Amino acid sequence: MAPDSFAEGRGGSRVHRQPDSAGQVERARMALVACPVAAIGTEARHDLQDARRAFPEPIEEDVYFCGWASPRSYGAASYLIRRPAGNVLVDSPRFARPLVERLEALGGVSLMVLSHIDDVADHEAFAAHFGCARIIHRADAQGTLAGAERLIDGNAPVSLADDLTLIPVPGHTAGSVCLLYRNHFLFTGDHLAWDTDRRRLEAWRDYCWFDWTAQTASMRRLLDQHFEWVLPGHGDAVSLPAATMRAALGDCVRRMEEPARRAG
Ligand SMILES: [Fe+2]
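^ thats the input. predicted complex w/ fe (ii) ion below
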């Protein structure tokens, strides 16, 4: 969000230098709005009006980062796809009035795709307000998700539209799914993310709640897909040329398979 000003520290993010340029100040204000727990302090009372209206923030073409992360989604990132056939909200931000008004201005929400049970936050409020259908894998459709309008089953990719494919990737949770948009953007939930420090794609064994072997197999199946963006719930997003992305994913799969090979 604002790497010039904030850095990951032990126990959370910390300010590692005061923002100075106008651009850095604006990015820092946007980080205030995106932060799920309002944990960032300010010495002066900044006018956050512009920052509050800055979300959803364009990433590339018709894909936006929503900001307004919710502690009920563990601070996960959520995304908006703006498309003529109907806008798609990928995972749930906070149901915050400034964001809802911006989503209305951008055409509302027709479909809410939920990558897995962890990142659903205010899904009921968004569904009620926008009248959008919610879609989630049946294996993760617990609690309030039992009322989702559409459940998918099994491991085979599901075509939602010409430009949208849902790809089950069991592992992090039993019902984790990735959403592939236009064979270009892959929304990965907590299945896969970019590690900026190591400059490589990563899956997190320590945060695998369901089955690491299943997650490894799911990751290998992603090698069949073509995409140039990884847009995760947690961790960093990355854009790479398709061939480079595929090589990075192959490297991730090999690292995931390594311990099993040694044990075997
Ligand atoms: Fe998760």
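Residues 55-263 form a domain with the Metallo-beta-lactamase; Chain A fold (CATH 3.60.15.10).
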